[in-house]
C-alpha cells in the first residue's frame, strides 16, 4: 500500500506588482505550513519524496512542512504542477518510482482539491483551504486512477 499526501500551499500574500509565482507566504502561512508538517509527523507519516510546484509559496510550504516533519526528503520542483488540472497531476504521480511508498505533492487549488475528489470519488463541501492536506492510501503509483484511493486523514489549519 502506498500513501499519497496532497498539500495545498499555505496562505500567501497578495503583493501589488509581484508576479503570481513569486508570492510569498504570510506570517500565518509560515506557521500553518510548519503545523501541517508537525501534524503529519504526529500521524506517523514521513514522505520519501516531495513533488512541488515551482512557485515561491509552494516551495516555502514544502520546506516548512518538512521542517515540522523533521524530514530530509528530497524536493523535486515540477513546473507542470503550477496551474495543473487533476489529470495532469495524476499523470505526474503515475511516473513516481515504485520504490517510493509515501509521496507528498505540494500544489495549488483548484487542481489539488479536484485531484483528491477524483481519487476518492467523494464530495467535499468544506473545500480545501490554504495549508490543508489529505492523506490517501492507494496501490502502485502507475495504476492510480479515479476512485482508487481511500482517504485516511484530512486536516486544515483551523483544526486543533
From TrEMBL:
Bias (Basic and acidic residues): 19-36
CDD domains: HP_PGM_like (cd07067)
Matches recorded under SMART domains: PGAM
Keywords: Hydrolase
Superkingdom, natural source: Bacteria
InterPro entries: His_Pase_superF_clade-1, His_PPase_superfam, Mito_Ser/Thr_phosphatase
Pfam families: His_Phos_1
Residue ranges, annotated region (Disordered): 17-36
Transmembrane regions: none
Name assigned to this protein: SixA phosphatase family protein
Biological source species: Sphaerisporangium dianthi
